[in-house]
Write a structure and sequence with these properties.
single chain; Leucine-rich Repeat Variant; 21 helices
């Protein structure tokens, strides 16, 4: 009989411990929120007297007076001005942005940020990378490239973001390699966004990345070739579509060929709509044929209207709609097919058909 009271006591202790833990967590959350709000108010109070000068510089209406006042800020006010300028640099371009960066430089903030890239705190390293990025400091490229190997994910992400803002194509190859880095890679979308800001200078790096051992790097490279119209990569895209062991890479190459391919790519894409290929790839190639916009794709797409996979047939019908009068003629011949009816209904709702 003594077992039941003991068990009840253990349950009560465990319940009390859970409630105590929840109470402690709630207190911590409240204190954190209060502390954050307090810091925000202190920041606003420190910036308030200098706000007219910040506005004058960011609006391009400063004759040098406002910059001088901002540069003369010291102590806590200097730190507050640095944070305010960092926020403004995400919204301001041209000469006003350059003048705001000049204030940061006179504060020594950019030099401090370069040093902070090696700080023990991951938060400080990430903030330093972001400041160098929004300030578009070209001399920071090598240090930011090194930060792509940082052990902290937030620092790697901030470094990639900063490199995209600076836009130096020298960072393209390291960014692409970082996508496939084992256990410390960059998210593909983040790397792609950063690379898109670097212009045509990344063409060579993309070509090399299409042969990278890691499929994530090859996928990002293929995607960028398509959205950035890097036509020099067409031979590599065709080869990867045919031979790559990774299905996602093959699908991305097909999408890229649909965006930037030539008339010869009708046959390349059509070949990969055959039943011997994986169904996801066949679907992507059917869509890509519509994006390519060549009338020579009509026979292949028309044949796919009768495919056993209804989704593939519907995609083929949608691509025929995109091909205009020539494609519509093929659709009229199969108007009774359900995929054709679905594609025409969607096209009418989207305003494609009149």
């Amino acid at each position: 009989m003594t077992g039941a009271p003991a068990s009840h006591a253990v349950t009560l202790v465990a319940t009390f411990a859970v409630f105590a833990s929840c109470a402690v967590l709630a207190v911590v959350l409240v204190l954190t929120k209060v502390g954050r709000e307090g810091r925000r108010r202190r920041q606003a109070a420190l910036v308030a007297p200098l706000r007219p000068h910040l506005i004058a510089v960011s609006a391009g209406e400063d004759d040098g007076t406002a910059r001088a006042v901002l540069a003369a800020a010291d102590g806590p006010s200097r730190h507050a001005v640095t944070r305010a300028i960092t926020d403004l640099l995400g919204k301001v371009r041209g000469l006003p942005a350059e003048e705001l960066v000049e204030v940061l430089d006179r504060h020594g903030s950019l030099e401090s940020a370069m040093a902070d890239l090696r700080h023990a705190s991951a938060v400080r390293r990430a903030q330093a990378a972001q400041l160098l990025g929004v300030s578009r400091v070209p001399d920071a490229v090598d240090a930011l490239v090194a930060a792509l190997d940082d052990k902290a994910a937030e620092v790697r992400a901030s470094a990639a973001y900063a490199l995209g803002l600076i836009g130096d194509p020298r960072a393209a190859a390291p960014l692409l390699r970082a996508v496939g880095a084992p256990d410390a890679g960059l998210p593909a979308g983040l790397a792609a966004d950063a690379l898109l800001g670097m212009g045509v200078g990344i063409s060579g790096a993309l070509g090399d990345a299409l042969a990278d051992p890691d499929p994530r790097t090859r996928t990002v490279a293929a995607h960028l070739c398509g959205v950035g119209s890097f036509s020099r990569a067409l031979p590599c895209l065709r080869e990867r579509l045919a031979l790559d062991p990774d299905l996602t890479v093959r699908e991305t190459c097909a999408q890229a060929l649909g965006n930037i391919g030539r008339a010869d790519d009708v046959e390349v894409l059509a070949r990969h709509t055959r039943a011997s290929h994986p169904l996801p790839l066949r679907r992507v190639c059917a869509e890509a044929l519509g994006a390519l916009g060549e009338d020579a794709a009509v026979p292949t797409l028309a044949a796919l209207l009768h495919d056993p996979d209804p989704r593939l047939a519907e995609l083929a019908a949608t691509s025929l709609v995109r091909l205009g009068p020539c494609g519509r003629a093929a659709l009229d011949a199969a108007a009774h097919e359900r995929p054709v009816q679905s594609a025409l209904t969607v096209a009418a709702l989207q305003g494609v058909l009149r």
